[in-house]
Design brief:
Number of domains: 2
Strand content: 15-25%
Bound molecules: pyridoxal-5'-phosphate
Number of helices: 12
Helix content: 25-40%
CATH topology of the largest domain: TIM Barrel
Shape: globular
CATH architecture of the largest domain: Alpha-Beta Barrel
Largest sheet: 9 strands, mixed
CATH superfamily of the largest domain: Alanine racemase
Number of strands: 20
Structural class: alpha/beta
């Protein structure tokens, strides 16, 4: 349900608009779902924290016994500060990298994190930095895909991981460098429908059963993330029982092939957090264009959130359910384009189609002052927000089931935007 209009007004009066509103109960339910899926012994869930790195969320994961997949030095440090344990026994924080950037190698070495390498040269880079511990290898298995083509996570056009036929070369390099390969990892994306996801995960698990015998130090394999959230048909989410059965049987088959217990990991991001957060924005004006030889006219609701807040529609043409708050049940509907404040034509939340053109949404015509709720914005929402146009990031508000509210990040100010600027001579 879209949050109640009175509550939204109360929060807006305190923190302004736009703002992110997290529902703690929804996150906890999704954590419980994932714990159910991974409930059998030897199966472990991580949270791909890139989806939503707020400390409050990371603490919920720690409290739920969910481990972390981090992709930058600072992500790993955020997880550690939020209470996740350092070290690699067990590897609570796994460091999955396409490239070791900035403080990444230092953070891995100083906190003894398990590095999950995504390109062959990383063995040498780790060795040069003095690392001699266990590693994980991320494989590009050659199949799988994301929710759009630019999110390809497995196949010849994917930049992620080491191509599957080069795996043994990477292992040989690790052996020479005195590193033990303790985990094999692949992430095949959340785009597919349930059956395709199931088939792809099964295919990956079978590939592992054929590979484990070459890896005497192996203690775990990861099936990656990619548990989908249904953004359009919000009432029909994926069934979780078959995934529990799948993960249980994959763990058993892989362990049987290895003749010892091999932990099976999954690391969803979006599934935990997508439905837990709504981006609330306010309508500032309504304006129209008229049909001419270039195309059809449109009704624009001009709101104060833009792709600096939620970039998914502009970046991938992603669909988010939209409500005009308090008018959800109104009868008269019109095709409305919801557009933001940025100096970019693509700053529109109602986009889609092959050419990512405007796709007006059938909505009650809003009025200036109305609130618009952009739903399912918890994954890759605030996490991908930016400071383009020098608009500070919007505040994040946390709602507990008892109705209590907490401001978990405030609106960024000009000083926040300028604080990294210097005039240091080099
Ligand atoms: C290595 C890895 N693991 C997990 C995820 C999480 O994917 P999702 O949020 O679709 O579950 C990603 C997403 O990009 C990823 O690259």
């Amino acid at each position: 349900m879209t949050p109640d209009a009175t509550l939204i007004r109360r929060i807006a009066d305190k923190v302004g608009t736009p703002f992110w509103l997290y529902d703690a109960g929804t996150i906890r339910q999704r954590i419980a779902d994932v714990k159910f899926m991974t409930g059998s012994p030897g199966v472990q869930a991580r949270f791909a924290m890139k989806a939503c790195p707020a400390t409050k969320v990371l603490r919920e994961m720690a409290a739920g016994g969910i481990w972390i997949d981090a992709v930058s030095g600072n992500e790993a440090l955020r997880a550690l500060r939020a209470g996740h344990a350092p070290g690699n026994t067990p590897p609570v924080v796994c460091f999955t990298a396409d490239v070791f950037r900035d403080n990444a190698l230092d953070v891995v070495l100083q906190n003894n994190l398990l590095p999950n390498i995504g390109s062959p040269g990383m063995v040498r880079q780790l060795a040069d930095a003095g690392y001699r511990g266990p590693i994980s290898i991320r494989i590009n298995p050659g199949f799988g895909h994301g929710h759009v083509n630019t999110c390809d996570t497995g196949g010849p056009s994917s930049k992620h991981g080491i191509w599957h036929s080069q795996l043994m070369e990477a292992k040989a390099a690790a052996d020479r460098a005195g590193m033990q390969v303790v985990m094999l990892h692949a992430h095949i994306g959340s785009g597919p429908k349930f059956q395709e996801l199931h088939d792809n995960l099964t295919r990956l698990a079978i590939a592992y059963t054929e590979t484990v015998r070459h890896f005497p130090d192996l203690t775990a394999v990861s099936l990656g993330g990619g548990i989908p959230h249904s953004y359009r048909e919000r009432e029909t989410q994926i069934p979780i029982e078959p995934l529990r059965e799948l993960f249980t049987s994959c763990h058993q088959r892989i362990s049987a092939a290895a003749k010892r217990d091999i932990r099976l990991e999954i690391e969803p991001g979006r599934y935990y957090v997508a439905p837990s957060c709504t981006l609330i924005t306010r309508v500032h004006d309504i304006k129209t264009t008229e049909t001419n030889e270039k195309g059809a006219g449109a009704i624009f609701a001009m709101v104060d959130a833009g792709f600096v807040d939620l970039i998914r529609p502009a970046m991938y043409g992603s669909y988010h359910h939209i409500d005009v708050v308090g008018k959800e049940d109104a009868h008269g509907r019109e095709p409305i384009v919801i557009a933001g404040p940025l100096c970019e034509s693509g700053d529109v939340f109602t986009r889609g189609g092959a050419d990512e053109e405007l796709v007006p949404r059938s909505l009650p015509r809003p009025e200036p002052g109305d609130f618009i709720a952009i739903r399912d914005a918890g994954a890759y929402g605030a996490a991908m927000s930016s400071n383009y146009n020098s608009i500070g990031r919007a505040p994040q508000v946390w709602l507990e089931p008892d109705g209590s509210l907490e401001l978990i990040s405030r609106r960024e100010t000009l000083d926040d935007l300028l604080k990294a600027e210097t005039s240091e001579r080099l």
